[in-house]
Amino acid sequence: MAEPQVAMTPVVTSKLSVKAPEFYPSGYNQNFNQNIADSSFEERYDNYVNLAEYVQDFLNHLTEQPACFEMEIEQFAEVLNGWVTADEALQELVELVYQQATSVPNFSYMGARLCNYLSHHLTINPLNGNFRQLLLQRCQAEYENRDEATKGDETTRKQFHAFVLFLAELYLNLEIKGTKGQVMRAEILQEGLRELLNALFANPVDSNLICAVKLLKVREWGFQSVFSQWLLSLVSAQVRRAPHWSFLLQHRVPHRLGSPARAAATCIHPEGCNSSAPPVWNEPTFYTSDGVPFTAADPDYQEKYQELLEREDLFPDYEENGTDLSGPGDPYFDYIDEEMDPEIEEAYEKFCLESEHKRKQ
Fold first, then answer.
1. Does residue 218 or residue 171 have the better pLDDT?
2. Could you say which of 204, 216, 296, 359 would form a disulfide bridge with 242 (CB–CB 3.0 to 4.6 Å)?
3. Greater confidence, 293 or 307?
4. Rounded to whole angstroms, how far apart are CA atoms 313 and 144?
5. 267-277 average pLDDT score
């Protein structure tokens, strides 16, 4: 009788070593982190020749490691308070932060947060304006050049578009104190964003319209009730001027406005466009227990939809506010992300435009 064969476990070999040198991605600045970790405040301060070198090094560090903002911003402000003691130094600081926020991709949000923190924690009292005032003056200079910038060459428009998106983030992040001490936003920035949107639509080349769509996506700044009707009118006029952009503009606006705006948005098809095609913002149709259809545009949608969920018991382990009653570890809901990555969004928009062009050919 043959003896049973014993399965041999293959030997796994690896070239990995616990003594391997530490890996750093390309462009990573080791010197800055070494200064932060191994030097005292005075030593780190003395390692830099001038203010511009120190500030630029810190800005690059934030660009590479944005998660360090909360841990290191207080120390950064402390260094600046010991260094920025004259109007010229404060002006230089404002310019450095502005240039980083408008020239480095994806730094506009971090730049706006940094501006808000410095506007509240810099102790210098200059004659020509504090940090926030000088920053707004710098933005005002770009704002006044908006008509020329939207008509300029590709490089000029690209710089202007970066300014527009930074100003939108600045509006959302810059906090000021009201007359009674309450924290509020700088509403004048929202008026400025409104005029910038007008300027972009007034010169409807593709790059300007792409910037306009991105502006409309920045935290929904423009979709307050006071601007809803104005925004619909503006988009309606733009669709008539550039019909090939109707897909993205109509897709962006109605999905983020309330129910009345959705109803009004169905009227913004320009003449010559295929208005019989189903609009991209059409809502799915649901049915009550009596068989009556309803959509998200109906005023009593929430009540009817909740009744539908209770009747069908579609989400037995979740409360109305989304609280998970079954505990952590759900392999599906743990990975839901409501927002797409900016690069994916841009690629999706380009795909939509190309598809629209092909459909019209």
1. 171
2. 204
3. 307
4. 56
5. 43
Comparing CA positions, the residue from 198, 299, 215, 306 lying closest to residue 252 is 215
Q: How is 21-55 classified by DSSP, letter by letter? A: PPP--TT--HHHHHHHHHS-HHHHHHT-SSHHHHH
Among candidate residues 158, 150, 68, the one with its CA nearest the CA of residue 114: 68
Nearest to 117 by CA among 164, 162, 69, 165: 69
Q: Provide the angle, in degrees to the nearest 10, between the axes of the packed helices 206-217 and 342-360.
A: 130
Residue type, 300: D
Q: Is the pLDDT of residue 124 over 50?
A: yes
Pairing type for strands 183-185 and 286-287 reads unpaired
Is 50 exceeded by the pLDDT of residue 183?
A: yes
Strands (DSSP E) found in the chain: 175-177, 183-185, 286-287, 293-294
Contacts (Cβ under 8 Å, ≥6 apart) of 338 = none
Q: Per-residue DSSP letters for 117-178?
A: HHHHH-----SS--HHHHHHHHHHHHHHTHHHHHTS-HHHHHHHHHHHHHHHHHHHH-EEE-
Mean confidence (pLDDT) of the chain: 73
Q: Kindly indicate the confidence band of residue 345, based on its pLDDT and cuts at 50, 70 and 90.
A: confident
Q: What is each CA distance from 328 to 117, 247, 318, 321, 324, in whole angstroms?
A: 35, 39, 12, 16, 7
- Measured distance between the N- and C-terminal CA atoms of the chain, rounded to whole angstroms: 78
Task: Please list the residues that pair with 183 across neighbouring strands.
Answer: 177
For residue 359, what is the enclosing H or E element? helix 342-360
Please say whether the beta carbons of 242 and 204 come within 8 A.
yes
Q: Kindly indicate the confidence band of residue 278, based on its pLDDT and cuts at 50, 70 and 90.
A: very low
- Residue labelled with tokens 């010229």: 88
Q: Which domains does the chain have, with CATH numbers?
A: 28-222 (1.25.40.180), 224-281 (no CATH), 283-326 (no CATH)
